[in-house]
Amino acid sequence: MTIQDKIIASILLLHSSLGVLWTFWVASQIGFPPAFLTANLSLAAIGIASGIGWFMRRRWAAYLCIAFFLIQLVHVHTPTLQWSFTLGFNLNIALGWISSGEFGVNLFALVMLLWSSARAFAPNNSSKRTRENPRAA
Amino acid sequence: MNSPIVKLSAAAFLISLSASGQCKDLLALAATNLTAARSSPTIGSVKCPANLDSLVGMAAEVVVSKLGRPDLIEVGRGEHGQILSVQKYIFANSSATWTDIGVSVGGWSVVAPVGKPFTVMYFFYNKGSQIELVRCNEG
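Structure tokens for the assembled complex are given below, as produced in the milestone run.
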């Protein structure tokens, strides 16, 4: 496992674990709305599973990681749709119009998405598939 | 009947009536400015109303009934670090474009006009949907 893989796995675990605390902290101040809790805790669970899987060099962890950051990548605020997930950590840049709303990108998620994808599909990546093919050896 | 307590209560009632009237005037002025800015063919500077702090404690429904739905809603922080819902009104016509840069939810966030500057009013609501803080950035 390279240092880069260790850093990615650590960021996933740290971001998700702090995200759980952040979710409960925010929820406690806005009256524990079930939809907010369910959505954010599910996202945090994906991040934690991905971080653990990445440390164990499992292939599925890369797909969970990509999903984790893809969900946080786009931020949409329109009168009909509100899509914004951060788990409390983001760097958003958005462009807005009164008639259509605001559309943004989370630069932190974008960088992490590109970095983790590059590592996941790198030729020297040592991640294992969950089920080894017994005839492959 | 003319005890000091009765007099004080009457004075407090009159002050609260006057404050409530002032709040309604402030919101009515903001609503007029917002309508004018929306229907104006060009984006121009709108002056921020004075004494915005007198709106503190007002219910969100009253603001929405006067100003309509906000242009932007996001999570922000109050002066003591508490989580608040931030509702923003853009005082400009539909050609207005802006960039919104935010670092971490509840942290630093700024709306910056692209092109001509415009005024933005920020209402910070607590979990009881009452105004905790009002800010206005003049364009």
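The interface with chain B takes residues 22, 25-26, 29-31, 77, 79, 82, 84, 86, 88-99, 102, 104 of chain A (CB under 8 Å). Residues 3-120 of chain A form one domain. Further analysis is deferred to the final report.
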